[in-house]
Each structure stands twice: as C-alpha cells, then as structure tokens.
Amino acid sequence: MKARDAYELPEERERDLRRAVRLEWATIAAMLSVIALLYFTLGSSQAMKTAWVEDILSLVPPIAFLVASRYSGRHPTKHFPYGFHRAIAIAFLCASVALAGFGALLLYDAVLKLMMREHPSMGTVVLFGHQVWMGWLMIAALVYSVIPPVILGRMKTPLAERLHDKALHADAAMNRADWLTGLAAAVGILGIGMGWWWADAVAAAIISLDILRDGWKNLSQSIRDLMDERPTRVGSREPDPLAERVRAALCAMDWVEDADLRLREEGHVLTGEAFIVPRSNEGLSERLASAARQVHALDWRLYDVSLVPVRSLARVSGGQERDTATR
Amino acid sequence: MKRKQAVVCTAVVCAAIATACGIPQDPEDTLARIQGGVVRVGVVNNPPWASLTSSDEAAGVEPQLVRALAAELDARVEWVPGAESELLAALEHHSLDLVIGGLPASSPWKPKLGFSRPYYTDTLIVAGARGSRVRHALRGVRVGVEKDRAGAAALESRGAVPVPVAHPATFPGPVAAPAWRLTQFGRAPAGVVLGMEKRVFAAAPGENGWLVRVERFLHQRRDSIPIMLRREGR
Question: How far is it, in rounded angstroms, from Cα B124 to Cα B72?
Fold first, then answer.
C-alpha cells in the first residue's frame, strides 16, 4: 500500500491550531467551574437543571476537538494510507449525537413536568447572615455561567474560520449562543417568583429545544461531511470557491484541453481527483507533475489532489475508460 | 453588542420591578388568603414536636410556633389531625397550607412538597452515666434507648445492643437519645454522635411566597427553639 505523503500545515495555521487547542483547554476549565457553581444552586428548578446539563454537554465538543487534533496531524502509515484527517469528522459526529440525544431527553422531561403540573418550591438560603430567596442566587449563578462561554466563543470563531475547522466553528457558535440559555432560565425563575408555576418548565423546554436544534444541525452537517459532500464554506452551505479556482488554473495551462475535478473535505484539507484532457500525450508525466505542484501551491488546504489524464470528460456508463493514473 | 446591552438593561429593569412586586408570589395566593383568614395546619402526632390534645387543640413546640406566626398574620388556625402520609398527600393537593410534627428533612416527600429550611438539628448522642465517659467503640455495649427505639438502627449498625427501657434516666449504662432529651435526663449531651436529623415544616408545593414567610419567621425564632424543647417534658 502506498501511503500518502505527510501533510504539513503552514506556519500561521499551525499557530492558529495551537491557539485553538489552548482555548479549548480554557473552555473545559471554565465550563467545569460553571458546572460546579450551577450544581450547588440547582434547587428544584427544571430550567436550571436543563442549563446545567447543557453546560455539561458543552464539554463534549472541546474534548472531541482535542482528541481529534492529536490524531489528525499524524503522518499516514501502511495501515492507514489515507492518513488520519477524518478523525475530526468522527469526533464531530459523536458530539452531535450526544447533543441531539440529550436535547430530546431534556425536552421530554420538561414537557412531562408541564403535563404533571408540578409546582417548583423555592425557599430561602442564609448567606453571610442574610436570608435570601433562592431564585436570586440561581439568577446570579446563571449570569456567571453565561460569561465564560460567550467570551471564549467569540475568541474561537475567527480561528475556526481561518482554519476552516467546521467542528471548532460549531463549538464556538454554541458557546456564543449560551447567553440565550442563561436568559431563558433566568426569565423562567423570575416567572416562578411572579407566581407562574409553569414558567420554569416552559423555559426548560425552550432551552432543550435549542440543544436539540444544535444537535440536529451538527448531526446533519457531520453526516454530510462523512458522505463526502462537495466542499462548502465554514458555517454555511455555499460551495467553496476553491474548487472553481483549481479548475480555472488547470484549464489555463496550455497543454490542457479541458479539465474538471472532484473534491472532498477531510478535516481542514481538501483532497480529491482532477481529470485532465491533454491536447497530446507528449511528456505527460513531467507535465502532470508540474501541474500538480502548481495546483497544490494555490492554497494550503489542497492536499494530495490526484491529477488523472483522461480521453474525455464525458461520463461513461458501465466500464471505466481511464488511462493509467500518474501523478 | 447593542442587542446584548438591550438584553442586560431589560434584565435589570425586570429585576427592579420584581423586587417592587414582592417576589416571590404564590400561584394559588396562599399567603394572601391566610392573612386575615384561616391557616389550615395538618398536625402529625410526634411529641414533643407536636401532639393533639383531646379537645382538638394542638400542643408542643411546633404548634406554639404556628400560633405565633398566625398571630403575626392575623389569621385563625385550623388544626387538622391525621397520619403523616395522608396529611402530606393532602398538602400536595393544596388541601392544607402547612403540615407540622417533627418532620425529618430526609423524608422522601421532599421533592413533591415545599420543605422549609431546617429550623432545628437533632443530634442523636450516646451519653454515659454521670461521671463516666463512653468509649468510641460501641461493639457489644448495651445502650439504653427510649420506648420508641429512636437510634436503635444506628446502634445496631455499630454493633451495640439497644435495650429499650421505660425510664432511661435511671438506666445504669450509656443511653442514646437526642441532645435535648439527655439534658432532661440529667446527663451531659456529650459522647458518641450517632447521627443528625433536621426538622422542617412542610408547606404546599410551589407556594413560594408563603414558604419564604414561614422560613423568615422560623429563622427569627431559631434561638428560642432549644428553650421551648427543654420546657416540653413527657
């Protein structure tokens, strides 16, 4: 088995990756502190419990990213000739399944509480000699719980865009949207204070719908990734313009009559096959080798794009009509 | 950023209004109904915490507290007798406002009702006879317990032998009883601690305005509880 050549990230992207790793460790530490604080102020509030579970779930994407980024940089081996770039897609899939699953569970829990008409009881606690209604304490904890994720999310977003890392981008987006969770839970608790017993369960239902929606969005994205969907921009469904740039660059070469390509994303990198119809077969090996160098110099994301000379670009039904592939 | 600022401002304004509105409030307006009206109190027979006398009146530490609270609220008290589980079930359905009777904080009813903060912590102690000290290892030691066998399970798990006696005050060996009972027996409330039980009041679930009022009252009176206990004798 001929293993792929090793892939090296350019300097700046390497720096970005290292910074992303540091930020993800910071996210884990910050979220652990939030989880501990919320645990002590949970009380009998369903909305608080849902926000707490969401914060535990927001540990999963950073852990997935850290584990995957250890593996994806490894050089391809005989056993894994295509390398380990897919590791991040697998990690992303696991994280999305966890989110979607828990979102559904929490929604079920909240709706059940509403149907059973449970009235949450919240009394007082004594803090430094003062008797304070528990609800105020919960709201204070929620305000704190929102601050680290939103800050870290904002810091991670530009890194994710530069690295074209969909998993990191999704994680940052979820962190940034955490303020909505805190607000919903706080409004729910204030609603309880106003005497509306259902406010808490409704807030919990809203938060769990948000988790479910995040999980579903990420799940469908990671499924499309694993199905080798055409490369898209980070955070959107628009096609990545890089594919068109490669095609244009190939067609611009004088010995090329026509060219088309098939690309897929593997983590940060784009890989695939470019099909070239040469005007003549003279010096094909050298021309293909130089064309490959030119193509890979276009962008740091292109990796191991195979250049395949073909007789025509028309689709062949049944057997395959391709000349021997050379690089 | 503008959106965020708007959200924060709204939140602050909400909090300000909320404080003015007297948060927390009751979904079923319990506190408003009780003020100047009737408070329905379920009484579990559990001396000295609460007991019902023959004339349908309640006596004990907790009824005294309830009477004081009712006076503050200008309300009349309706005492409702019954078994603990039936009274708590009625409380869950809002047929009662409060249930008292030395309810333990570790009761399995806690998630379904509005338990107050513990207003007193019972410490179960094994105290030696006057002048003697109890060894920490209780294995095989015969320890006197009251007729209701309070603490017998804890003693057995430590290997001691609980001996129910009618008059623990005159038992020659060590005796296991709550701290305030030991004082009544004339023994120092010091020795091996078997466990702690916290006592609470139970309010109707979700009636947070009422619950907070009860808790504030109990917190104010917390220092008078040991005195009241000492006065209650059997």
Answer: 33
